[in-house]
Amino acid sequence: MNAMNSSQPHPSCVLQADEVAIHYGGVKALDGVSLTLGAGQIRGLIGPNGAGKSTVIDAITGRRRLTRGRVLLQGEDVSALGAVARRRRGLSRSFQRTSVFGQMKVRQQVELASHKMGVADSGADADAVLRELDLLRLAGATAEDLGYGEQRRLDLALALVGRPSVLLLDEPMAGLSVQESHDLARHLKQLISRWSVSVLLVEHDMDVVFGISDEVTVFELGRVIASGTPAEVRANPRVREAYLGSAA
Amino acid sequence: MTFLQVAVRAIAALALGAAAAAFVGSDAVLSLLAQATIYALFASGVGLLLRQNGSASFGHALFFGGAGYGVAALLKLQAMPAELAILATLAAMTLLAFLVGLVIVRVPGIAFGMVTLAMGQMAFLSTSRARGFLGGADGLSVEWPATVFGMAQSDLFRPATLFMLSWATLVVVLAALALLLASRFGSVTEAVRDNEERARFIGIATLVPRAAIYALSALVSGTGGVLAALNTGFVSPESLHWSLSGMTLMMVIVGGFKTLWGPALGAVVYFLFKDVLGDYATHWMSIFGVVLIAVIVFAPTGLAGLLQRLVRRRAPLAASAAAALEVRDARA
């Protein structure tokens, strides 16, 4: 599935962004970005800092109001909906900076998130997600007492409960050691494949992005400059010049 | 906290209050205790808002004094029986707070405090100048009927009875809050307080829970206001003044707001200070101010937090330590 410029709903896409623009006065944080995401697909978003990767996640999840364009989730236009309504329709995200509930217990907050997603047995769902992310043993701990890597996984757990159809991950490996990054990437890959979640992944760790993505989209100055399989993107001269460098 | 745990603690607290009412012989002491308990309710409302919404109100006297005025006005109009007047006032106060809350809880940080201060002072100035029906700056007598809740006035207004009534109300209110906050609603409000943006992204509509907490805190403080009107038989604009809100906030800080009973403890400490030091020092508030600073610097969780730490130090395997060990073992 390629980044595209279609204004028609694409039947096989779980997520479609059409000509999405976010302007802050004269600053164009996003300037007509279109992309799609198929079922079970992982699309990596890469680009230099300030290219608009996190902004596109904010736009899709309803954290930022669109200046122009629209967002379709399972064919439904959700552009006018708020973040809560989009989450309840299966669009979930993690944050660039760890975003958990510091004073709540680990299981308490994951179970609450599952309950808010309408899962009948929210306790079992929470335990399943915590087990997947190797956090079940810390279920009774307060979030602010966890280590950084554990908090990153908890952030991910909050996004994964209720089995969202689309998961938008904003630099999930940020601040992790090489080993922690590889462990989390492996966990993610397994989970995504088993639960058929579609993922938009913003990440600066190129090994992770090219290692687990089906497709990669490259941003520069609020625009998409390239899109394709990891091999195609690696070989793209413009991408090498703008971001990856000649050594890639 | 389970229902059984709350019930056991509530029964123990009620027994303690009954023992105090029975064995404290001095009417002056009982009056002081009744006053402290009434302000403990007021402070519990302010503390609830701080604990669950993370918001400090500088104008909660609006609900404390407003509830007293509401009951006094309805009784003056002879519109309904006293019992119904109390319930109607508290219901109206809670509804009003919820509707106002839907607007003002959107305002973050210190600006929220300024909005509450403005609202409180609007009520104070309006009431001070309403010379006709509300009595203006002179205030208004509360015309309680001969019997309230089946009790004759002569029995009800005895210091021991007033103390026990206030104490029982405080215990029931704190027990009800403990159960409510242990429920799903408590988790939702905790999540919203900790990280409102994240709460939205796990599917929580954050506005209504925040407004609900504001309304609940108004109800609790308003209940204190009704008891104050019962205790003094009089309401005046001073009961709406910002200085009363500020004083109650001091009680909350001194007592600590991480626990539900912290603000109540702060109120009791405040009145003890006032009573003991007031006999020796005209400017006893300056001494209380020093205590306030000391608590903020050395015990940010208040006296309640300090007491909890002392208890835990005496029992090294108490809950938090055990939890810490559990986490460490799990990581190992």
How would you describe this structure to a colleague?
- The complex is a heterodimer of chains A (248) and B (332).
- Chain A is of the alpha/beta class and 248 residues long.
- Chain A is built from nine helices and ten strands.
- Chain A has helices at residues 53-61, 83-88, 106-116, 122-132, 148-160, 178-195, 206-212, 230-235, 237-244; strands at 13-24, 27-38, 42-46, 68-73, 76-77, 91-93, 166-170, 198-202, 215-220, 223-228.
- A six-stranded mixed β-sheet of chain A has the order 6-7-8-3-9-10, sandwiched between helices.
- Helix content of chain B is 75%, strand content 2%.
- In chain B, helix 3 runs antiparallel to helix 4 (82-104) and helix 12 (262-278) crosses helix 14 (302-314).
- Chain B has 15 helices and four strands.
- Chain B has 332 residues and is mainly alpha-helical.
- Chain B is globular.
- The chains are: A alpha/beta (248), B mainly alpha (332).
- The A-B interface holds A 61, 63, 82-84, 87-88, 92-93, 95, 99-104, 108-109, 112-113, 115-117, 137-138, 140-142, 145-147, 158-159, 161-162 and B 184, 187-188, 190-191, 194-195, 197-205, 323-324, 326-327, 330-331.
Structural class of chain B: mainly alpha
Percent of residues of chain B in helical segments? over 70%
User: What is the mean predicted local confidence, pLDDT of chain B?
Assistant: 92
Total number of distinct structural domains of chain B: 1
User: Structural class of the secondary structure composition of chain A?
Assistant: alpha/beta
The neighbouring-strand order within the major sheet of chain B is: 1-4
Distance between the termini of chain B: 29 Å
Strand content of chain A: 25-35%
Work out the helicity level of chain A: 25-40%
Instruction: List unreliable stretches of 5+ residues of chain A.
Output: 1-6
What is the typical, i.e. mean, pLDDT of chain A?
89
Shape verdict of chain A: globular
**Mind describing the biggest β-sheet of chain B?**
2 strands, antiparallel
Note the gap between the termini of chain A. Answer: 23 Å
Tally of strands of chain A: 10
Share in β-strands of chain B: under 5%
Oligomeric state of this protein: heterodimer
